[in-house]
């Protein structure tokens, strides 16, 4: 997590690459970002409850579960090393 925060801090300080940065000389990402959609907000309790209910259809399958709701990882619904989500 610290590595991600450090990388994001660097991005926040430097911003998007531009044509004066040699490695990105011929790629201007600002033109590509015009149509970028905003990030989804983290799922609320109601959405998490619906995801848990929808996942019950696979309750009999012996597998690990990684739950992603609206593009956000939900660790409390996902399996950890010693437990399984109900």
Average pLDDT confidence is 81
What are the segments in which pLDDT stays under 50 over at least 5 consecutive residues? none
H/I helix tally:
3
Large-scale geometry: elongated
Approximate strand percentage:
under 5%
Classify the helix fraction into a percent range. Answer: 25-40%
Number of strands: 2
In whole angstroms, the N-to-C terminal distance is 27 Å
What's the story with the biggest beta sheet? 2 strands, antiparallel
What is the alpha-carbon Rg in Å? 19 Å
Structural class: mainly alpha
String of helices and strands: HHHEE
How does this model look, in words?
The chain is mainly alpha-helical and 86 residues long. It contains three helices and two strands. A two-stranded antiparallel ribbon has the order 1-2. The mean pLDDT is 81.
Question: Layout of helices and strands, plus pairs?
Answer:
Elements: H1 2-14, H2 29-33, H3 45-55, E1 68-69, E2 72-73
Structural features:
86 residues; mainly alpha; two-stranded antiparallel sheet; 3 helices; 2 strands; 5% strand
Summary of the model, kept short:
With 86 residues, this protein is mainly alpha-helical. The chain contains three helices and two strands.
């Amino acid at each position: 997590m610290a590595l991600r925060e450090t990388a994001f801090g660097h991005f926040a300080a430097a911003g998007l690459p531009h044509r004066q940065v040699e490695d990105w000389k011929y790629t201007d990402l600002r033109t590509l970002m015009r149509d970028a959609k905003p990030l989804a907000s983290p799922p609320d309790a109601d959405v998490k409850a619906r995801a848990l209910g929808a996942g019950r259809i696979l309750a009999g399958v012996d597998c690990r579960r990684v739950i992603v709701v609206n593009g956000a990882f939900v660790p409390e619904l996902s399996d950890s090393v010693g437990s399984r989500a109900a």
